[in-house]
Amino acid sequence: QVTLAESGGDSVQAGGSLRLSCVAQGSTYRSCMGWFRQAPGKEREGVASIDSEDVGRTRYAESVKGRFTITRDNAKNTLHLEMNRLTPEDTAMYYCVAYPGCGTTQYWGQGTQVTVSS
Fold first, then answer.
1. What are 27-47's pLDDT values in tens digits?
2. Residues ≥6 apart with Cβ < 8 Å to 85
3. The predicted structure's pLDDT at residue 29
4. Does 57 have pLDDT greater than 90?
5. CA-based Rg of the chain, rounded to a whole angstrom?
6. Pairing state of beta strands 11-13 and 3-7?
7. Distance between CA 118 and CA 26 in Å, rounded?
8. What is the distance between the alpha carbons of residues 33 and 37, in angstroms, rounded to a whole number?
């Protein structure tokens, strides 16, 4: 069992930056992890993902490539999402997800709100 708690969401001006964090209670060893987001009236979409610590490959949605960076601090069992050059289109609830063993089981956090104003 893994419990995830996101933080770092805030209201910022367009062009600003935020750093989201996701602290895991329970082991995320050999887990894939990622960030999703959901804007009002829209479907949840994947933002970024990172493979288990022994692989470390990252993937990004086209809309955030070059602006967002996903990293994991294995010693602190924490996942981060560095977000730069934010636009109003990035406004959404951001969720952290863990996939133990990079399998099909998923654990989700409660989300953290990011609001970007123009």
1. 888 899 999 999 999 999 999
2. 15, 17, 67
3. 85
4. yes
5. 13
6. unpaired
7. 39
8. 14
| DSSP assignment letter at 83 | E
Q: What is the DSSP string of 11-70?
A: EEETT--EEEEEEEES--TT-EEEEEEE-TTS--EEEEEE--TTT--EEE-TTTTTTEEE
What the block records as the tokens of 89 is 């289109």
Tell me the two tokens of residue 12.
Answer: 């910022």
Q: How high does pLDDT run on average in the chain?
A: 95
> pLDDT tens for residues 68-116?
999 999 899 999 999 999 999 999 999 999 999 999 999 999 999 999 9
| Chain CA centroid to CA 24, Å | 12
What is the DSSP-derived secondary structure letter of residue 91? Answer: -
Residues in Cβ contact with 115 at an 8 Å cutoff, skipping those fewer than 6 apart = 9, 10, 11, 12, 91
DSSP letter, residue 103: S
